Amino acid sequence: KQFGEERRRLKNDIFFRSMKNGERNERFWLVFSPSTQKLFCVACKLFNSDQHLQFVACKLFNSDQHLQFVTGFNDWKNIHARVQNHENSIEHRKSMVTLLARLNPNIGINKQIINQVENETKYWREILRRVVAVIKFLCERGLSFRGDEEQFGSAKNGNFLGLLELLAQFDPFLKAHIEKNKNKGKGNVSYLSKIICDEFIQLMGQRVKKVITEEIKSAKYFSLIVDSTPDVSHVDQLSIVIRYCYEGKVYERLLGFLPITSHTGISLYESVSEFLNKADLDLKNCRGQSYDNASNMSGKFEGLQAHIKRACDKAFYVPCAGHSLNLVGVHTVESCLEAINFFGFLQKLYVFFSSSPRKWNIFKEFLNAGDSMQKVVLKSLISTRWSCHAESCKSLLKNYDSIIGALNEIANNDTEPANSVREAQSLLDKIMKKETSLMTVIWSKILERINATNFEEEAGSLSDKIGQDFSDVRRRKIIKKNSDKSVEPELLSGHKKFEVNTFFVVIDRLVTEMTKRISAYKFLNSIFGFITNSKIEGEELRQKLMKIFQIYEDDLDDDLLMEWMQFSSFVENNFLNCGLSASPHKILHFLFENNLGQVFPNILIIYRLYLTIPVTNCSSERSFSKLSLIKNRLRSSLGEEKLNALLLLSIE
């Protein structure tokens, strides 16, 4: 309210009464009306017995200040004195006593109604507790809810109603509710219908997503992990996983799936950007991104990572280490014909024995009779999962003699079909070759990342039935150049041919591919390498700190160097005698657990930035497993909102 050149405002402290002993009592009876811009006393407005007569007297003689809080008070200059006089008046106290008596649930004509409302509320809360528990149980396990019928007592009513019936057998309260409300159809409140069930799934999914987004916003920095896969209804689903550090721990959380129609880099960027905006997440706080090696994702110019990098230049791209390692194996296998034939032979072995139970039983008999303590059955090869190649090689390595025995048994059995005998003999001839045993050992060692010094010696120990000489068929003819520039033809022996055409080719391609893939991580190591390398010190350390400060100048203060020196000394003396050689995860947890972010704020930011950057997109791949479990051929018509809610509840 304007008083000359002064402007007075209604302050919040007027709604509290300060006592001399320091206590503050709320004046709940005092309310402000925005429409009239005045204060009112609720008690006097409702229960002032002489309100009309006092109102007339106030208008005629302007003598009753008490009635101002009935008609409305706005004299802000004298507000404190007027409010104090009013609350100490006899009329106000009488009105307050009447109001409090009316508010007392144990007094008055509405006592029974209040008790009835409380009992009804308690009853339905108990019902909802049981319903929500069943929904959580089914969501966590990715199970379906409805069956062919929506009737209690039917064996085809699905998991939701079936579990409620099961609980009712041991819960008289739920049993009575079901008996009272079952199969009544629409228009009857029971909280057991599919509509209520779907509504709870949506609400619970929204709540989980809200908690995750609040954690991400609290953490500030986050990274993107994105991948796509077609679902059972042939819809391309884009999985969006966020990696962030929260309260000293690193999390990778699924935020949801997006249906997409285009796989171009710009289209994926628009979809991801719109999704983050709806989740109220600022792309400017993105500090990393990791995808597979597909060009639409990892392309330097038009891939998704390039578009996100333009929107946030600190969102460094890291190719998925799992996919990169898989590509190393794939390209190494494709380097020579012998390697391709070897893995083709492994797949033929699996197909041959698994084609009929009788063949598989013969294989299992020889496997159980073998000397190997570790029984590993044959595995099928899957192109997208390189670990299957390792398992298949391991099975052949451990059971070489048993497989030979099983093939011999089938090849020499007159009761076997001619095709089976012929195929068994062909596989037997292949497995008996020296080259096959060598390839088994070589690839087992490569895939298990174990350095072997003598492959040939171990290859001979797989079975005493293996040929001891290399196949000299089709000897390779090469031209040998002498020092005097003369040339002469030379024929390679079987041993030399395998060494030149297969072993050296595989090893060279393996080294080349590993070097090529590792180069993608050098930039990240040049920024954060000093965190995990405690030997870096002096001028080199100063340059590393200057580099990270220049890159993250909007996130770090310029006193980083001094703070790091003090922090390294502090950690050496206080952190389990491990110092900076401890894992970054442990140091981050140590900083949060001891509230050291107040002392070393820049160090805390560096560790959060470092651990926020992902190196694989395995979380997206794992979310695909849940997607195929929840949206299967029997639930192919699930809507996107319900699908995302079920996925969040199942994963989280």
TrEMBL record:
Listed Pfam families: Dimer_Tnp_hAT, DUF4371
Ranges for domain DUF4371: 112-303
Domain (HAT C-terminal dimerisation) ranges: 583-648
Domain of life (superkingdom): Eukaryota
Annotated InterPro entries: DUF4371, HATC_C_dom, RNaseH-like_sf
GO MF term list: protein dimerization activity
Record PANTHER family: PTHR45749, ZINC FINGER MYM-TYPE PROTEIN 1-LIKE
Designated name of the protein: Zinc finger MYM-type protein 1
Organism lineage string: Eukaryota, Metazoa, Ecdysozoa, Arthropoda, Hexapoda
